[in-house]
Amino acid sequence: MGAKRRYRLAAGVGVALLAASTVTACGSSDDGITVNVYKYPQENFQAVVDNCNAKAAGRYKIVYNKLPREADGQREQMVRRFAAEDDSMDVLGLDVTWTAELAEAGWLKEFTGSVKSQVESGTLQTPLETATYENKLYAAPDNTNVQLLWYRSDLVPTPPKTWDEMISMAEALVAQGKPGQIVGQGKQYEGLVVLYNTLVNSNGGTIIDESGTKAVVDDKAVEALAALKKLATSKAIDPSFSNAAEDNARLAMENGNAAFQLNWPYVYAAAQKKPDFAKNFKWAPYPALGGDTSKVTVGGINFAVSAYTRHPDQSFDAVLCLRSAENQKLAALKDGVPPTIESVYDEPEMAEAYPMRDTIKDTLKNASVRPLTPAYQNASTVIATVLSPPASIDPKATGDRLREELQDALDSKGVLP
Amino acid sequence: MSHATAEKAATAEPEPAAPKKKALSEGKKAERRLGWLLCAPAALTMVAVTGWPILYSLLLSMQKFDLKFPDRTEWVWFDNYVAVLSSPYWWNAVWVTVVLTVVTVAVELVLGMSLALIMHRALVGRGIVRTTTLIPYGIVTVVAAFSWRFAWTPGTGYLAEALGGDPVLTEKIPALMVVGLAEIWKTTPFMALLLMAGLALVPDDLLKAAAMDGASGWQRFIRITVPIMKPAILVALLFRTLDAFRIFDNLFVLTAGSQGTSSVSMLTYNNLIKGLNLGIGSTMSVLIFIMVAIIAFVFIKLFGTAAPGSDDGGKR
């Protein structure tokens, strides 16, 4: 009796172990192939995944795994799994600034052959650049983003074309006792780096050279520091500029203090909830510095395939589907994220959700990318720290300090703040 | 005696010099061997889980090792230590940590002692009083830190609104004050608990006798209660100092180290986990390890803090 029970117990355990091992071996309950997608929480992304699962018709099944909401948290989770050579990650939603770092570390599969040409055809050039490192394609652009200049048409009849023009118009409004403030991202974080990168590129300057290994910070980049200081010390700047992130800027303008806002297109959808405010809420291209047009820093998400995936073919196939024109349109209409495939902008439904789509598309064609270097995270931390608070910038001295600390960060020598 | 020592040196026997150990019987020896054998798995596990990571971080701290550049790994010996020790960010973090530690532990000692006295002497609702004081310590630090953060965020927080709606967490000194406050709020109950255990050591008869002799309340506290409680106070201080020195969770949630509010642990996290720089990050952890060891040494050797469980009355 006792022996029998022990035998049954052992058999039970054995069966359980066997079952568990088959389940993990296939990574799926119905003996199919699972492609695990890791992406930030996007409201309607599951609908995109469902579309692709229907299209895959049982060849594989995509599972949407949500990463943390904050970019740093997303990166940390992925990097930790990469470092442990986790083979349960297949497709990854990467912030555009991470491509170089993860590719250099050998964690991403390169896009080659027909997959590569399918990604490249019809995709806007600048988003494609963010997916490229050392002339190899490591990701497929999913959505993109650029900042515009938002203004109140009841206060500003014609939007300013240049940086100086914007500041003097705003100061004139403030002098007349009108709500003429300029709001934007001045807090010590990535938003400040985006602002500075836009100014540097618009002015034709360079922060880090093309190889991504040498800190340059040339004269034009120093001029951009002066432009940033001019904004931060202007009479028209939002007093909490040096603490403001995207949403602080949006709220400050919606509360009626500001005439100008430098921000991403999501503020348009948010403004529609306040009809009184929305009717005068207009957009224009980002003010230029140096040249005729501004070269705005591009944002957004790219899909990459993990180097440790056990299903590379299915993963690449899934990427092509997840970022197809049809699904980009769905994401644009439902989640408000600008597409990376040019033809999507011309779809009739886009006019309603994206009245500023032509401005976005034009801005994108002339947009700039953030420095492509594996040490981007470090470089970004250093830039944000050295430039903060922007009002205390001393262009020459700050430029020298930036060059020195950036070089240390690129050599992974210095201490990150 | 001298003959025995010479013989030992000659045969290089590993046994210590004490002659009484020679008197061990065969049975005792076997018992001791068995004891060692039984302990060995646990001891080896301990070495593996605590010793290896320490050794590994020592090894890493002498290498240039950045996960982003796996091909550029090389031995650099003490270059990382030079880089860290010559960095203003590191010294800023050290100062932030030291100031936070000294200030919060000092305030906690005073508050904790008052709380302990109240709890010790409470006549009505003793259970309720003790339970309520312990609530902050029972809350998960990160959760508490989030509620502090919301409270101090203009627009959503009652504390920020009550003080004029300034974003206090975005400036260095005010932010550090908020962090200190959160730490004090959170760990004073722990201090009070340890001190209350010490208070129980003070005999009532002694206090009554002193009162008969005309000692005032303050004199009784300073001359009788505090000296008798000294071991408990020192243990409480040691624990809290070591804890406070490693402050991380409160800071992580409240400021994440921006505006120069990084503690040494926060800075290490930023370099190690965020920056993927294992060399520099490990160097920092080794330095923290050394600093913590120094604090413990100072407390135990100079102030005579007894390790909990030892029975030599606070002296070693």
TrEMBL record, chain A:
One Gene Ontology term, aspect cellular component: ATP-binding cassette (ABC) transporter complex, substrate-binding subunit-containing
GO biological process, one term: maltose transport
Family in the record: Belongs to the bacterial solute-binding protein 1 family.
Organism this protein belongs to: Lentzea guizhouensis
Any one GO MF annotation of this record: maltose binding
Protein name as annotated: ABC transporter substrate-binding protein
Gene3D superfamilies to which the protein is assigned, alphabetical: Periplasmic binding protein-like II (3.40.190.10)
Signal peptide location: 1-25
InterPro entries recorded: SBP
Pfam families noted in UniProt: SBP_bac_1
Keyword field contains Transport: yes
Keyword vocabulary terms for this entry: Signal, Transport
UniProtKB/TrEMBL annotation, chain B:
TM region(s), chain numbering: 34-55, 89-113, 134-153, 173-201, 276-300
Region of interest (Disordered), ranges: 1-26
Membrane topology: Multi-pass membrane protein
Protein keywords: Cell membrane, Membrane, Transmembrane, Transmembrane helix, Transport
Single biological process term from Gene Ontology: transmembrane transport
Pfam family, any one: BPD_transp_1
Cellular compartments annotated: Cell membrane
Domain spans labelled ABC transmembrane type-1: 94-299
Keyword Phosphoprotein attributed: no
Cellular component GO terms held in the UniProt record: plasma membrane
SUPFAM superfamilies from the UniProt entry: MetI-like
Family, similarity comment: Belongs to the binding-protein-dependent transport system permease family.
Name of the protein described by the UniProt record: ABC transporter permease
Species of the source: Lentzea guizhouensis
